[in-house]
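check this one:
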Amino acid sequence: MGRSRSEGARVIVTGAGSGIGRATARRFAAEGAAVLVLADRRPEPVEVTRAEIERLGATVITMPGDVGEPAVRDAIVDAMLAAAGGVDVLVSNAAPFHPQQPFLEFSRDVWLEDIAVNLNASFYLGQRVARAMAVAGGGSILYTASINATGAGRGSTSYCTTKAGILTLVKVMAVELAPYNIRVNAVSPGPADTAWSVQLVGEEKMEEFRHRFPVVPMGRLASADDIANAFLFLASAEAAYVTGHNLVVDGGLTARVYNVADV
């Protein structure tokens, strides 16, 4: 595919050190993005992403730090504005990993961290970027939600709750920002082959899932590129009339109810 859908774009990606964030940064660069600000709380992985992106010809600025911290969020946007004079695309993707915990024993610290990183950062980054886009004439703001935004994931109280909040935030922003030519959308991944998933189930079980994952009608896990391609589409001119939408990328998982034979 030609270098056209992101030609010259100025793109911010959070959680860019691995998985969906890294794949998304690569896809935008491969399609011609000019400047990328890549944020991740871990310095070493985001530098690996930087090297990959620079080989594709884009200018890269890395911003290590936790987007749950206000100073880090401001620094990310300030870096892009200083380097490129504006922002065309924000992909707010960062999310902390937590082992599953039953609701009755759920940690308040985990709850507060997910609120800070998943929800607060989504609002504050989105607002700051939207203000710049409104002056410049438009742009695309994108969020990583989850299929767990619309249903329970056992042991993931704050994750499900904050991802559901993102979907409502997307709708409010889409409606209010439409007059400024700013489109706002989300991508909801289903089960995916990412480092986050490996942390959740372990490498041995993950290797088994890579070969067979019958819970999903398509029989496999999503790749990080499956999700990155959805972001690329939503940011492109091909999606010029799409806003306030949650694009579910789950291999048909949420279309399924149950089979009597499996009960």
The chain has one domain: 10-193+224-249. The CA atoms of residues 69 and 116 lie 8 Å apart. The chain has eight helices and seven strands. The chain has a mean pLDDT of 93.
